[in-house]
TrEMBL record:
InterPro entries: GH43_arabinanases (IPR050727), Glyco_hydro_43 (IPR006710), Glyco_hydro_beta-prop_sf (IPR023296), Ricin_B-like_lectins (IPR035992), Ricin_B_lectin (IPR000772). GO terms for molecular function: hydrolase activity, hydrolyzing O-glycosyl compounds. Keywords: Glycosidase, Hydrolase. Pathway: Glycan metabolism; L-arabinan degradation. Belongs to the glycosyl hydrolase 43 family. This is Ricin B lectin domain-containing protein. The active site is at D49 (proton acceptor), E229 (proton donor). The lineage of its organism: Bacteria, Bacillati, Bacillota, Bacilli, Bacillales. Signal peptide: none annotated. One of its GO terms (biological process) is carbohydrate metabolic process. The record marks D168 as: Important for catalytic activity, responsible for pKa modulation of the active site Glu and correct orientation of both the proton donor and substrate. Pfam families: Glyco_hydro_43 (PF04616), Ricin_B_lectin (PF00652). The keyword Hydrolase applies. PANTHER family: ARABINAN ENDO-1,5-ALPHA-L-ARABINOSIDASE, ARABINAN ENDO-1,5-ALPHA-L-ARABINOSIDASE A-RELATED.
Amino acid sequence: MTMRIKRNLLICIMGATLFALLFSSIVFMGGKMTKAAQLPLTGSTNQHDPTLFKDGDTYYISATGGGLYRSNSLNGPWIGIGGVPKAEWTNEVSRGGLWAPHVRKVGDTFYYYYSQSNFGTNDSAIGVKTTKTPGDPSSWTDLGRPIIASGNMSRLTGETHTTMNAIDAAVHQDRNGTWWIVWGSHFDGIYVQQLEEDMVTLVPGTRKLVASRDSERFPVPQPNFNRIEGPAIFERDGYYYLVVAWDWCCRGNGNDNTYKVVIGRSQTIDGPYLDKGGVDMAQGGGSIILNSRTTQEGVTPAGLHRAPGGMDFFIEDGTYYMVYHSYRPQTVLGIREMDWHDHWPYFYEDDGGPYDLRDGAYYKLVNQDGIISDPNTLQNPVAGNRCLTAVNEGNRGNLNVIQSECNDAQEQIWQLEQEYDGFYRLRSTLDDRAYCLTMSNASGADYTDVSLKPCRGGDNPLQQWYFDDTGHGFHRLVVKNANLALEIENENGVIGTAVVGNYRRDGDHQAGNLTQAAKWPPQQWKFTMVAPGDN
């Protein structure tokens, strides 16, 4: 490193304390300062699988169980006003309850899509209610029959595709004015199908699988291991976005839930939906954009909100909001404004979400403490004392990457450089800052070597990384094309262990709750800012 660069880095480090104060209240995004935080909500907010809609100046929420709530603002107070009437046909669903409603206004009519299901089975059906006066609970009129059914309930519709799970329906209108319905949970995955103009009749021959955890590498051994549900579709700037929840919800102890919000995008509403690494969501792909997080100041209830899921999307005055639930450990409503980076959404986080990291800043990458057999660490992960470290093995340019004990040495300082479309490059501060973190090849093979190679701006996908939000302020670094995550080769955390590229563990259906929480410690990294940089 030249004397000039050393001097600049020292100045940056001296200013880090002041910058930290500023950074806690703003986020740098391509020259824009923004803070799109979780909204502080008041009133009745213990809702599961919420849907948000508006009539005139009044906002409404409905949720699992069929309750209706209203407010004059998104922040509340949310006041219960009753519930939608129960449909006679739903008595056919053994032990079934009304789940996961979704409301959209078409013309002057509000359509209320909902599910009835026997928990733990695919004996399920999707129904529809309508009204022109949503604030009057008794006015919601049921169609009188389901429009989609599965399992033993298929007899209600004559459905021949009995192995899917007919729950969690949502609708979206494509740019040609055609409405589509998306639904599914576990079992066969997530489907989309075109609707007739009446909003309740399915167009034959248009059904398509758009998302599943099942893949060639990780085949689903049984239906409950296809842990994907709660789909929703929205559109922005030429892309359709498919958002789903991965893993488990609805456990007796809310702290045991492992939901997370995952996304892909497509230029056509029926897919294929690709994640940031270009993997089709129908083949196990998906990029995590929201996981367990601690609330920002002023949000109640304060503290850690686990396992976000049950999403709906609400757009007002050009602002996109995600409406969802999480666990405290009881169910609690959440509404978050979405920010955008090169056509990918993200969510602000004080502790540093994937796009809250500053372009040009200097960081240490600290690995998660704990090994995979420690359930307490997996539930509440904390940073350890092992850092991503560049090692000069004797000759200039012969640089390797290992994990070693954190010591604030220059070898452990990396500059984050924004590339494009959600990808970043990590530049080592060794050897005149000419070398970047690089996957050796794009084969996708396990334990692919990771080292430092001369930085090549914009034309080397093996130096381009995107960051999955794996919760609690941790990230998983995934390289473009190869679809491999940065991993400590020895998960027991032996100091000096090599760093390699390995497959993303959230597709490993045999690994139980460890990967359901996306808490594979060797792939968990926390960015700790050392200095803000020059950008």
